[in-house]
Prior knowledge:
The protein contains six helices and five strands, in the order βαβαβαβααβα. The protein has helices at residues 8-34, 50-54, 70-76, 88-93, 96-109, 130-143, and strands spanning 2-4, 39-42, 61-64, 81-85, 117-120. A five-stranded parallel sheet has the order 1-2-3-4-5, covered by helices on one side.
Amino acid sequence: HMLFNCTEIMVGPRTYEELLLDYDIATSALCAQLGVGLSLHHCGRFDRFAPLYRRLGPMVLIEIGSESNVRLALDMFPEAKIQYIMPTALMCQGTRAQVGERIDALLEAGRGDWRRLYLSVADLEFGMPDCNLFEVYERLRRAA
Length: 144
């Protein structure tokens, strides 16, 4: 089961805790009762929500937005795979060197946990330089 929490970034962690967290806790408990793993999509900055999400129990996968601290997510959810969403603007408008720098920074942040760190390169648009996608592939291939 996947919780899609895209809108939480619009209300902030305090409002999420006050109005929505109990619903997510109940959903998590139901998933546990049914033997279904829980995954979470949070496309915004994950960091301030992480302690609240930790209250949901074990996670299978957490998808985090491009402004999120990868190391924080890996450390706070050691049981989960962490999927980082590459920024669309960087992929479509950045240079190959900028894309490479971001990949290197992610690999450094994920050091020791590469088997749990995944990259999502989504929302690619017409006109995105092919070399940027090739750069992601090449940096990851060299790191493996």
